[in-house]
Write a structure and sequence with these properties.
Helix content: 40-55%
CATH architecture of the largest domain: 3-Layer(aba) Sandwich
CATH class of the largest domain: Alpha Beta
Structural class: alpha/beta
Radius of gyration: 22 Å
Order of helices and strands: EHEHEHEHEEHEHEHEHHE
CATH topology of the largest domain: Rossmann fold
CATH superfamily of the largest domain: HUPs
Number of strands: 10
């Protein structure tokens, strides 16, 4: 891993994004690129707001509105730069010596991710954004859109940073699940961390064999991993298990051939991430 792309928006989750990015960078030796994306500037309201006033007065009103719009744009850019400056200071404070860059972009956040992800190995984003409805635990659309569009792993940070010591890996027998196991086994990011490989649902001979293979792969990477089979629905069973086990991170493949696949391609995505109180690393 050489570069981490971290998306910050000034929300309560931005600090967690920065601290998790710093933690990842410190353990992996990667640099960090911080992005703050300004939405496409809405056009000012140039409709006739002047009623029956004379043309000259109406023209002056339009000019004043244009001036206000320009001022708002300047303030928005200044706010974006301030968010990036604060984020860069946080990462540098938490990860001394790590190379940190910042970029202010304008447009659609998903377009930014797809345009820039080839420059990084991992995308870090907060569970909720600046406009999230905390009363309803709303995740918003950007997280799902980014997960669907990205080809690189996506690290979804929870609200409060906590050093990661124990990892739960969701295993469903699919190719991306084994890719997740292989990543944990090989990456210095996970060196020295406790690992638990979990399957939700019944234990078939194929699943049992897969769990043995996963455990052997992790053992080859220096991890003394355990395996476990639990009953229930993935979006609730995984979250409950993570809390019961005192795990600090859930790792899972983004594509599979069982019910876990619905965590990414269906509405269960937000339900699982919402109910899980720790960060989630999604492997493509």
């Amino acid at each position: 891993m050489t570069t981490i792309l971290a998306l910050v928006d000034g929300s309560a989750y931005s600090e967690s994004v920065c601290r998790h990015a710093a933690w990842i960078a410190t353990r992996s030796g990667a640099g960090v690129k911080l992005y703050h994306v300004l939405g496409r500037r809405e056009a000012p309201d140039r409709g006739d707001l002047s009623g029956q006033i004379r043309l000259g007065a109406r023209t002056r009103l339009m000019e004043e509105l244009a001036t206000l719009d320009e001022q708002r744009a300047k303030l928005t850019h200044a706010q974006g730069r301030a968010i990036l400056e604060d984020a860069q200071a946080l990462v540098q404070e938490a990860a001394e010596g790590v190379a940190v860059e910042s970029r202010l972009r304008q447009g659609d956040i998903v377009e930014t991710v797809t345009a820039k992800e080839d420059q990084g190995d991992l995308i870090v984003i907060g569970k909720r954004g600046e406009a999230a409805d905390f009363a309803k635990l709303h995740l918003g659309s950007n997280l799902e859109r980014i997960v669907r569009a990205a080809t690189k792993p996506v690290f979804v940070a929870n609200r409060a940073f906590k050093p990661i010591k124990k990892v739960v890996i969701a295993y469903d027998g699919g190719p991306s699940a084994m890719k997740a196991v292989d990543l944990v086994a090989r990456s210095p990011l996970f060196a020295g961390l406790d690992c638990l490989v979990v399957t939700v649902g019944g234990e078939t001979p194929k699943i049992a064999e897969g769990l043995r293979d996963a455990r052997a792969t992790l053992a080859a990477g220096g991890h003394q991993a355990e395996t476990l089979v639990v009953e229930g629905q993935p979006e609730t069973a995984l979250a409950e298990l993570v809390e019961k086990q005192g795990a600090d991170l859930l790792v899972m493949g983004a594509w599979g051939h069982s019910r876990i696949r619905n965590l990414i391609i269906g509405s269960t995505t937000t339900e699982m991430i919402r109910s899980c109180k720790v960060p989630v690393l999604l492997i493509k």
